[in-house]
Amino acid sequence: MIELDNVTKVYRIGKVEVHALRGVSLSIGDGEMLAIMGPSGSGKSTLMNILGCLDVPTSGNYVLEGQDVSRLSDDRLAEIRQRKIGFVFQTYNLLPRATALANVELPLLYGSGRDKSRRAKEALAKVSLADRITHRPTELSGGQQQRVGIARALVKSPAILLADEPTGNLDSASSAEILALLRGLNRDEGLTVIVVTHEADIAAQTQRVISMLDGRVVGDHPVKEQGA
């Protein structure tokens, strides 16, 4: 599904060059659940932006489902994001005055009202929030808010779910619930799930861990099943 070949990313700030990625090569198969792990400054956020078609490499190639997206225009990248990629954020990014249903409907801005409502309700049911559709974020726990965020990502039926520190603002019990939900989506619906994290215990609940340091991939290994 995903192939990165010798990808670099250089940011220029005045006369200073910041090398965020230094020759990253990576393959991710359809239906995998993996973690990209590393400390602050390791390049994992830059890699996430490129995988999510929010940015393009300075050099190298990124092939997504057979299409080289490395040099596409902003409009074409936006189209790919809309069709193929769902995003889950650490801070949820919900509209505070909108209901759970209205928040999940947002990516369907140009759909018909009846179809938007149906699809949003189906997405909320997948995250066990069918009984909270009229609640606003302030009426929901942190874990429930994150589930609304996941439903919003699912409503477009993406092929890839890209979760950026999805448990970073949650307590341990809520974190476990969110990871179990992501694992279930991967297992039951075949969704490719990429979790960006700096926490080893979160990465250990995926199938594969890619470790980054100083803009390079320094480790890529499968996760042993618990009890194995």
What's the quick description here?
With 228 residues, the chain is an alpha/beta fold.
Annotated CATH architecture: 3-Layer(aba) Sandwich
Please bin the fraction of helical residues.
Answer: 25-40%
Main CATH class? Alpha Beta
Ends distance: 28 Å
- Computed structural class: alpha/beta
List the helices and strands and how they pair.
Elements: E1 2-13, E2 16-28, E3 33-37, H1 44-51, E4 59-64, E5 67-68, H2 74-84, E6 85-88, H3 100-105, H4 113-126, H5 142-154, E7 160-164, H6 172-189, E8 192-197, H7 200-203, E9 208-213, E10 216-222
Parallel strand pairs: 3-8, 3-9, 6-7, 7-8
Antiparallel strand pairs: 1-2, 1-4, 4-5, 9-10
Helix pairs in contact: 4-5, 5-6
Describe this structure as you would to a colleague.
The chain has 228 residues and is an alpha/beta fold. The protein has a single domain (32-53, 73-222), classed as Rossmann fold (3-Layer(aba) Sandwich), CATH 3.40.50. The chain contains seven helices and ten strands. The protein has helices spanning 44-51, 74-84, 100-105, 113-126, 142-154, 172-189, 200-203; strands at 2-13, 16-28, 33-37, 59-64, 67-68, 85-88, 160-164, 192-197, 208-213, 216-222. The strands form two sheets. A six-stranded mixed beta sheet has the order 6-7-8-3-9-10, sandwiched between helices. Strand 9 and strand 10 (216-222) form a beta hairpin. Helix 4 (113-126) packs across helix 5 (142-154). The longest helix is centred in the C-terminal third of the chain and has 18 residues, at 172-189. The radius of gyration is 18 Å and the shape is globular.
